[in-house]
């Protein structure tokens, strides 16, 4: 069986996407999302009809944003995140998002073809927060290999 890497990250925006505080972030979403979709190893990302995920409100707080995607492997996701213009956005995260003491992202392996949904992804994040890293919920600091089944 072939496996892909799923990733979830969440964050509470400092203000609404229409605000001056979030303008630079909001303006950069389309180019960053396009860059992701054109990156080697990209498989899928959660988005609505407009092409982004910021309008998908899963939490009661509309400023809590969700990013969920699937990649062929860890190296592909790392390449996009840390070796493209996306890195410039990561460096500015504190300008746009409230600080969080708990983990805000999680990685896990899924069977190729499976598209994770938000409840599944949040369960993985909760598992990571409560039990630490494991083969079913991990971070870049302790990556687990693809299952060998």
Topology at a glance:
Layout: E1 3-12, H1 23-38, E2 42-45, E3 64-71, H2 74-82, H3 86-91, H4 93-96, E4 105-111, H5 118-131
Antiparallel strand pairs: 1-3, 1-4, 2-3
Structural class: alpha+beta
- Label the CATH architecture: 2-Layer Sandwich
Question: Which sequence of SSEs, written as H and E, runs from N to C?
Answer: EHEEHHHEH
Outline type:
globular
Neighbour order of strands in the largest sheet: 2-3-1-4
Beta-strand share of residues: 15-25%
Distance between the terminal alpha carbons, to the nearest Å? 6 Å
Weakly predicted, low-confidence segments: none
Please explain how this structure is put together.
This protein is α+β, with helices and mostly antiparallel strands and 149 residues long. It is built from 5 helices and 4 strands; from the N terminus they run βαββαααβα. The protein has helices at 23-38, 74-82, 86-91, 93-96, 118-131; strands at residues 3-12, 42-45, 64-71, 105-111. Strands 2-3-1-4 form a 4-stranded antiparallel β-sheet, with helices on both faces.
Task: Provide tags for this entry.
149 residues; alpha+beta; four-stranded antiparallel beta sheet; 5 helices; globular
